[in-house]
């Protein structure tokens, strides 16, 4: 089983930027069809942020995050990134990386059920 290891979270002021990384440990992402980022704030459900297909880099974003968040991948490094700009206090959450092995998963990337492998999460806190 490939382990997904997130990093890059932290404390940032409103308007700042962070880049999250999700690296494959113990294997490669080539066995997966797509990767996604989700987030979960305290007391709220897990929310889709962005997704990318591993083969051709097709991206999908939550409508509310388009223009501020950018997902990308580096196949050689087996790493997926989430660049987050113009951060707001409401972006405060634990951010999770997830991988899907299924075709259904890359057709419905906004659904947590589409993913069969999850990382442990990284905390992002945006201060006002």
Mind sketching the topology for me?
Layout: E1 3-7, E2 10-13, E3 18-25, E4 34-40, E5 47-53, E6 59-61, E7 69-74, E8 79-84, E9 93-100, H1 103-107, E10 117-118, E11 122-127
Parallel strand pairs: 2-11
Antiparallel strand pairs: 1-3, 3-8, 4-5, 4-9, 5-6, 7-8, 9-10, 9-11
Descriptive terms for the model:
globular
Write up what this structure looks like:
The chain is mainly beta and 128 residues long. It contains 1 helix and 11 strands; from the N terminus they run βββββββββαββ. The protein has one helix at residues 103-107, and strands at 3-7, 10-13, 18-25, 34-40, 47-53, 59-61, 69-74, 79-84, 93-100, 117-118, 122-127. Strands 2, 4, 5, 6, 9, 10 and 11 form a 7-stranded mixed β-sheet that branches. Strand 5 and strand 6 (59-61) form a beta hairpin. The chain is globular and about 40 Å long. The chain starts with a strand and ends with a strand. The mean pLDDT is 96.
Which word captures the global form? globular
Beta strands, count: 11
Q: What structural category characterises the helix and strand content?
A: mainly beta
Rg over C-alpha atoms, rounded to the nearest angstrom:
13 Å
Brief write-up:
This protein has 128 residues and is mostly beta strands.
